[in-house]
Design goal:
The structure holds two protein chains of two kinds. By secondary structure, chain A is mostly helical. Chain A has three domains: 4-53 and 83-396, Na+/H+ antiporter like fold; 410-530, Rossmann fold (3-Layer(aba) Sandwich); 548-624, no CATH class. Chain A contains 28 helices and six strands. In chain A, strands 3-2-1-4-5-6 form a six-stranded parallel β-sheet, sandwiched between helices. Chain B has a single domain, classed as Rossmann fold, CATH 3.40.50.360. In chain B, α1 links the parallel β1 and β2.
Chain lengths: 624, 188
């Protein structure tokens, strides 16, 4: 089927049909997309002719995913991972390549082919592994950290692998195509200049991330046009990806770097929530493309070879990673998902096969086989993961339940503070002074920038947007504090939280009684009228200046506030009953007036007989 | 003189006592409930004042056989370990301290034959031991009893005695317990 619209309809329909079914069956979305791809692919319904073509474009989803992951990883946390990346990651890449290289040689393939295939098959699928880790909310767990470290090293390894491949070509055996993918635009330059370009490009990304993107996003966000902000976010990712491709680096690695640099930026959460749908759609497309690429004709014709090779590779990769995990003292219930999760051949190998084909290292039939093995392995591992989660891990966990380690502490803060005006910032400072770092959201780009300079962690964004609240961690937070003045925004915020985060405790600032009534009706328990405490405090000080005793004034203020708060709650109950409201309101006003008049005022101030000896004196006098 | 009364405006006895000593030189009155109505006592200020003083008086109504809560709070947080007692806690050493209390019950009710069964000194043992732990000399209590029924005249006499006591404490080089017994005030 030709044309954009019919194609879009096919993809989306397939996804909408298959993914929910897969999820319902407990298989995760990846398997759903893969199945959707297989169904609409050339070997079943035949809607799709060329999976690879789409895959190349859809691979951009992986680029975006790494940008988003970078956003959640602050530089200092990345630095803390360096040991993990270098040790675990590097060992995995080197050992796996070496073993595959040896097997290739043993099977009688040329050493060039064995090396090229060994190197590309050592890499795992970032898309599959990270997506499933995120779906299972395991990014912060030990498994997640180890897997991520390995994947990051693999992404770095892409650079030398692409550099080595051309060197494998025996001089003169094959003409080097100038148009090898998008890679190699700088290949006509001498080596030292290429290196310079690479470092220059990384430098540009770092500089832009540090000094360029912030002002750009600030400028754009002042327009308050959301689509413009989204467009800028896309521009950043696409721009960096393009730059990386120009110098032959992995675009995913480049955007990851940019993401890490922007992890400290006030626009972090806004970027996350704007790019997330794109990432999701593109990744879905990518997985469908993988599914569509599986050449079933070839598989059915050579079942034993392809299935055998796939099983061999998966077993091998699992074995090697298990060994590394064991060495790193991972428990078996952590080690197994770590190893099996990373056991497939990654999407990057599609690129290397194409490259190697053009270089003449592979011939067409080799390439077809390899593609089939890769796609099959990408389909099998998610199934293995599901089986493992369902049947093996529960058993292991039961055995190890007693010596299981404590869960990792969540990165997100437990308190979300919305609005960082004078009110919010005072509150924030107080919390911070007591060791509670709130995740702060504010909608004024200039204020966000200013406060950032003062050292506050403030994020830009509209808190009445569900996705922003989600990326600010509303699902895991304990308390959401709204220090916003505007009643309309507060109302929306309360509705949103009540609906989506029922466990989140909300504390709301209000302007006055009228706003408070509305919030009480909505079921908000913690309501703070912004003027109540200050006005009472001012009154207390006035009384002190008039000669009242400080402690008496304190008690008077406390009971007055208590009285006022309870009056508010009583009035709110009768608010709907118009008639009653008027009478109760009248009653309250009368009470207020009575309180203010002499007689009752005395009663109010002496509402207890604490430390009063008048009664005792009277009693004694009566006795005598 | 450390004074604690949560409702000073209603206490005639303490008014008289404070009035009597209000214009004495070198006598500092620290009205705790006025200084720290929210119980947020400044340890620093209190310790500085203590360090300056030679004689310290806890003046308070004798609520439920003890002092009002703010004064207990004061004792709890101002008399720090390592400052008032314990290793390095030498800053109160050799100072003199006493309680000056007002009570609704008369002096006679405090004793084996009275309603309250124990003597005032018995009840004040925690204060005495606190002083001892801080290496201070604990002096006999100054007491005005029966404040519910006391006559204005008698109260004036009591307040005058209080003033005399403070002057003597202020000016004395050596204090002996016998001479201090003169200041027991019995108004019944």
């Amino acid at each position: 089927m030709e044309g954009f619209l019919p194609q879009a309809i096919i993809f989306i329909t397939a996804a909408i049909v298959c993914v929910p079914i897969a999820k319902r069956l407990g298989m995760g979305s990846i398997l759903g997309y893969l199945i959707a791809g297989i169904v609409i692919g050339p070997y079943f319904l035949g809607f799709l002719e060329e999976g690879e073509d789409i895959m190349e474009k859809a691979e951009f989803g992986v680029v975006m995913m790494l940008f988003l992951i970078g956003l959640e990883l602050e530089p200092k946390n990345l630095w803390r991972m360096k040991k993990l990346i270098l040790q675990v990651g590097l060992i995995q890449v080197l050992v796996t390549s070496a073993v595959l290289f040896g097997i290739g040689l043993g099977l009688g393939f040329s050493w060039q082919l064995s090396l090229a295939v060994g190197l590309s098959m050592a890499l795992s699928s970032t898309a599959i592994v990270l997506q499933s880790l995120k779906e299972k909310n395991q990014m912060e767990s030990q498994v997640g950290k180890f897997s991520f470290g390995v994947l990051l090293m693999q992404d770095i390894a892409v650079i030398p692998i692409l550099a080595i491949l051309p060197l494998l070509v025996v001089v003169g055996s094959a003409p080097i195509d100038a148009e090898v993918g998008s890679y190699g635009l700088i290949e006509s330059y001498p080596g030292w200049l290429q290196t310079l370009f690479i470092f220059g490009a990384i430098g540009v990304v770092v500089l832009l991330g540090k000094f360029g993107f912030g002002p750009l996003l600030n400028w754009v966000s002042k327009t308050r046009l959301r689509e413009l902000f989204t467009a800028s976010a896309l521009l950043i990712v696409v721009g960096i990806a393009f730059l990386m491709e120009l110098v032959g680096l992995s675009p995913a690695l480049g955007t990851f770097l940019a993401g890490v640099i922007l992890a400290n930026s006030p626009y972090k959460h806004a970027l996350e929530s704007d790019l997330d749908p794109f990432k999701g759609l593109l990744l879905g497309l990518f997985f469908m493309a993988v599914g569509a690429t599986i050449n079933f004709n070839l598989i059915f014709a050579n079942t034993s070879i392809i299935v055998g090779a796939t099983v061999l590779i998966i077993t091998l990769k699992t074995g090697i990673i298990l060994g590394i995990g064991k060495f790193k003292k991972l428990s078996i219930s952590e080690n197994l998902p770590f190893a099996v999760g990373l056991s497939q051949v990654g999407e990057f190998s599609f690129v290397t096969y194409a490259f190697a084909l053009q270089l003449g290292i592979l011939d067409q039939s080799n390439s077809d086989y390899l593609m089939a093995i890769t796609a099959l392995s990408m389909t099998i591992t998610p199934i293995l993961m599901v089986l493992m989660d369902k049947f093996i891990l529960p058993r292991l966990n039961r055995i190890n339940a007693s010596d299981r380690e404590m869960d990792d502490i969540e990165v997100n803060h437990k308190v979300i503070l919305v609005g960082f005006s004078h009110f919010g910032s005072t509150l924030g400072r107080f919390l911070r002074a007591n060791g509670v770092e709130a995740t702060v959201l504010d909608f004024d780009p200039d204020r966000v920038d200013f406060l950032r300079k003062m050292g506050f962690k403030v994020y830009y964004g509209d808190a009445t947007r569900l996705d922003l609240l989600q990326s600010a961690g509303a699902e895991d937070a304990n308390i959401l504090i709204s220090a916003i003045h505007d009643p309309e925004t507060n109302r929306k915020l309360v509705e949103l939280c009540k609906k989506n985060f029922p466990n989140l405790e909300i504390m709301i600032r209000t302007r006055n009684r009228t706003d408070a009534y509305e919030l009480i009706e909505m079921g908000v328990k913690n309501i703070y009228r912004e003027n109540l405490d200050t006005s009472i405090r001012m009154g207390q000080d006035a009384l002190k200046k008039l000669g009242f005793r400080a402690y008496t004034v304190l008690r008077l203020g406390q009971s007055f506030r208590e009285y006022d708060e309870s009056a508010l709650k009583i009035l709110a109950k009768y608010k709907n009953d118009e008639k009653k409201y008027i009478s109760v309101g009248k009653l309250q006003i009368e009470q207020q007036e009575a309180l203010l008049s002499g007689e009752l005022a005395k009663k109010f101030s002496l509402n207890d007989h604490a430390w009063d000896s008048e009664n005792m004196k009277e009693a004694l006098n009566k006795k005598h | 003189m450390l004074f604690a009364h949560p409702k000073f405006e209603h206490s005639e006895a303490n008014h008289e006592l404070l009035l009597a000593i209000s214009n004495l030189e070198n006598v500092e009155v620290r009205d705790l409930y006025e200084l720290y109505p929210e119980f947020n006592i400044s340890i620093q200020h209190e310790q500085e004042a203590l360090f300056e003083a030679d004689v310290i008086i806890w003046q308070h109504p004798f609520y439920w056989y003890s002092c009002p809560p703010l004064m207990k709070q004061w004792i709890d947080i101002v008399l720090e370990f390592g400052w008032a007692y314990g290793p390095g806690g030498v800053y109160l050493k050799n100072k003199h301290i006493l309680n000056a209390v007002t009570s609704g019950g008369t002096a006679e009710t405090y004793g084996p034959d009275g309603n309250n069964r124990f003597t005032l000194r018995d009840f004040l043992q925690p204060f005495e031991q606190t002083a001892k732990l801080c290496n201070m000399t604990y002096l006999p209590v100054f007491h005005i009893g029966g404040t519910h029924q006391i006559s204005a005249e008698k109260l004036k006499t009591g307040a005058y005695k209080y003033r005399e006591l403070l002057i003597q404490l202020r000016d004395a080089v050596l204090l002996d317990e016998a001479s201090l017994q003169n200041f027991y005030f019995k108004n019944d």
